[in-house]
């Protein structure tokens, strides 16, 4: 999406003021520092929000698909179901375009054939104000998987820092328009040109590319998967930090039935009550993660379940690099 | 040094002494990764620099590495890794004659920011124990014996209970329960971890304040008297929980109560894993 001259320009102070004016009616979620790392958290004080950063440790999926969610409670002979707490609307401030695009990918699952009511409620009560990515990180590869560092897909408002104290706003949806209507200054020609220039610069700075083989299924039985998963620890770092991974488990904790995140890399993921396990070895589990993202999800929803944020490669304790592994399947993996 | 490492690896792979060699290599991003070398020609993948922080002894108890059936495994170990290896040997998790140990003299490993890891700043094991190794590579460096330095723990202990509670709650609330800390630990090798038992389910699987706290307390206790402080748990943690500090607190407790530090030798059992009539009990009040 490119800009027209209908876009508005704000100073940081003005933006803060607008956000503060809605903050008593809304919960604001934004990137904040915690012990030298950046996380998306609901904030008490808007001034704590960080305006310039690479990307956060956590993605924003947890605000729509929480890590732990009580579904219902058994009380004597009654069942009490839980609905998400949406007393106040939420503003999700400054997620990167990749993370927002990931939510649109999750929408296809959670609001597709089988609708998840809780997910929809959270989704409909959240205004997403994304922040364009002027300096993509060394592990980013969004361009080669359908994203863009200045993308606006899924956003209600897209914000781009033009210079230190100047932000250009594109209100994509009506939900976004309501907040900023009649405020700010119209972007002039120069500002729009600067936006386009910054966009081009950001695109050009992304050096990593993923090449996804069209016939991935052909390599299913290849020993390649054993080779590339040897160092894997079977922990959940990649799946829990991934903005699109969405597998969950349903467990009983006292009188509560809980839905919580689960990971396909874990030993217990496919183990049945009998003790039988269809994915006993770690290569089978690692292969599942790759195939779910780049084959099955594509088949079901016409989209890859990956947005190129690079978190898995960055935080993996043994630095497993998904880009290298997927891109060389054809070369090394086809039997 | 890398020349000698490659030469040694090539030799023992070539003459069939080992069927697999565990070392350090690079991925396409330039990150250091553990590599599994099975053929002589792949020896060229080996690297040695200040980012070879992995404790490769972790893979000895990895049930998916079934190379042991085919023959002994060669492994690169730094002084700190060797302590874990000694515990594994004393707990009979690996047989000495099934491994070939290539000890590496190390003068400290650095994190992604380029700073030395805290464990390296107070390292007392730059030089691996020659008696246990088959080969030691590297020029001996001066030993900086600072194992009594528990100042990091003392700093936390100086806080009042409410502050300490607040500090650890902040960390544990953030825990994702990804179990990277458990899975990277060379000494967390239980066939079935208590957190995965569901009949009875001792530790609930979902991430919540109580469940996370419970998990971390159990983790700390299961490593008491066994943890050597290699710090891989802390490095693996994606949300920056200072796990090594917890383990170090327990290392000091065991040292004070039993005059025992895990990883000193490959024979002595952990005091919590055995009973002696002359066990000290003056700390029982």
Please tell me about this protein's structure.
- Chain A has 11 helices and 12 strands.
- In chain A, strand 4 (68-75) and strand 5 (78-81) form a beta hairpin.
- Chain A is globular, with a radius of gyration of 21 Å.
- In chain A, the strands form 2 sheets. Chain A has an 8-stranded mixed sheet with strand order 3-2-6-7-8-9-1-10. In chain A, strands 5-4-12-11 form a 4-stranded antiparallel sheet, with no helix packed on it.
- Chain A has helices spanning 12-22, 97-110, 117-124, 174-180, 189-205, 224-228, 237-241, 282-301, 311-315, 322-327, 329-333, and strands spanning 8-10, 26-34, 37-43, 68-75, 78-81, 89-93, 126-131, 157-163, 166-171, 185-186, 248-253, 256-261.
- Chain A is an alpha+beta fold.
- A 5-stranded mixed sheet of chain B has the order 2-1-3-4-5.
- Chain B has helices spanning 2-14, 79-90, 118-121, 151-157, 161-174, 180-184, 209-222, 232-236, 243-258; strands at 20-26, 32-37, 73-78, 99-104, 135-137.
- Chain B has 2 domains: 2-137, no CATH class; 151-273, no CATH class.
- The model of chain B has no long low-confidence stretch (mean pLDDT 92).
- The relative contact order of chain B is 0.12.
- Chain B is an alpha/beta fold.
- Chain A binds chain B through residues 34-37, 39, 57, 67-68, 138-139, 230-231, 233-237, 239-241, 249, 251, 253, 258, 260-263, 266-268, 281-283, 313, 315, 317-321, 323-324, and chain B through 27-29, 31-36, 54, 58, 64-65, 170-171, 174, 176-180, 182-184, 196, 201, 204-208, 232, 235-236, 238-240.
């Amino acid at each position: 999406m490119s800009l027209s001259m209908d876009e508005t320009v704000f100073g940081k102070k003005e933006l803060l003021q607008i956000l503060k004016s809605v903050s008593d009616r809304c919960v604001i979620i934004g990137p904040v520092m915690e012990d030298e790392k950046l996380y998306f958290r609901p904030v008490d004080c808007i001034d704590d929000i960080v305006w310039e950063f690479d990307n956060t440790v956590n993605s924003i999926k947890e605000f729509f698909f929480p890590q732990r969610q009580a579904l219902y409670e058994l009380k004597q002979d009654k069942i009490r179901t839980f609905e998400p707490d949406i007393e106040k609307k939420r503003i999700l401030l400054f997620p990167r375009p990749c993370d927002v695009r990931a939510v649109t990918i999750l929408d296809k699952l959670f609001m597709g054939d089988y609708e998840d009511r809780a997910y929809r409620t959270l989704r409909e009560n959240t205004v997403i104000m994304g922040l364009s990515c002027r300096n993509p990180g060394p592990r980013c590869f969004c361009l080669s998987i359908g994203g863009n560092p200045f993308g606006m897909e899924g956003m209600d408002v897209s914000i781009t820092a033009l210079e230190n104290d100047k932000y250009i706003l594109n209100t994509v949806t009506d939900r976004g328009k309501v907040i900023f209507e009649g405020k700010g200054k119209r972007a002039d020609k120069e500002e729009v040109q600067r936006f386009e220039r910054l966009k081009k610069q950001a695109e050009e700075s992304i050096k990593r590319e993923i090449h996804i083989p069209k016939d991935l299924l052909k390599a299913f039985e290849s020993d390649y998967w054993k080779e590339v998963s040897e160092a894997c620890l079977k922990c959940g770092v990649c799946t829990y930090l991934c903005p699109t991974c969405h597998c969950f488990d349903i467990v009983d904790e006292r009188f509560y039935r809980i839905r919580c995140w689960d990971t396909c890399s874990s030993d217990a993921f496919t183990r049945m009550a009998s003790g039988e396990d269809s994915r006993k070895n770690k290569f089978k589990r690692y292969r599942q993660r790759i195939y779910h993202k780049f084959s099955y999800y594509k088949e079901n929803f016409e989209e890859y379940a990956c947005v190129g944020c690079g978190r898995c490669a960055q935080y993996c304790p043994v630095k497993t690099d998904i880009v290298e592994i997927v891109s060389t399947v054809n070369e090394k993996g086809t039997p | 040094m890398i020349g000698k490492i490659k030469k040694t690896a090539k030799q023992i792979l070539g003459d069939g002494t080992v069927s697999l060699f565990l070392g350090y290599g690079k991925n396409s991003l330039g990150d250091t990764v553990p590599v599994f070398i099975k053929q002589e020609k792949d020896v060229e993948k080996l690297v040695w620099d200040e980012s070879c922080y992995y404790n490769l002894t972790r893979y000895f108890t990895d049930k998916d590495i079934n190379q042991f059936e085919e023959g002994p495994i060669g492994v690169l170990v730094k002084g700190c890794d060797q302590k874990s290896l000694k515990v594994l040997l004393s707990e009979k998790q690996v047989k000495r004659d099934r491994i070939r140990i290539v000890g590496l003299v190390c003068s400290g490993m650095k994190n992604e920011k380029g700073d030395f890891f805290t464990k390296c700043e107070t390292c007392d094991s730059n030089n691996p124990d020659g008696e246990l190794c088959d080969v030691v590579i590297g020029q001996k460096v001066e030993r900086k014996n600072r194992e009594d330095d528990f100042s990091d723990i003392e700093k936390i202990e100086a806080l009042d209970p409410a502050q300490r509670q607040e500090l650890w709650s902040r960390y544990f609330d953030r825990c994702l329960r990804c179990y990277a800390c458990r899975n990277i630990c060379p000494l967390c090798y239980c066939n079935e971890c208590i957190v995965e038992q569901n009949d009875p389910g001792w530790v609930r699987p979902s991430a919540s304040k109580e469940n996370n706290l419970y998990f971390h307390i159990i983790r700390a206790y299961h490593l008491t008297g066994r943890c050597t402080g290699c710090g891989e748990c802390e490095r693996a943690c994606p949300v920056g929980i200072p796990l090594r500090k917890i383990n170090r607190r327990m290392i000091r407790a065991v040292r004070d109560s039993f005059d025992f530090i895990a990883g000193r030798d490959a024979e002595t059992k952990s005091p919590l894993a055995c009973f002696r009539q002359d066990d000290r009990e003056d700390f029982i009040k």
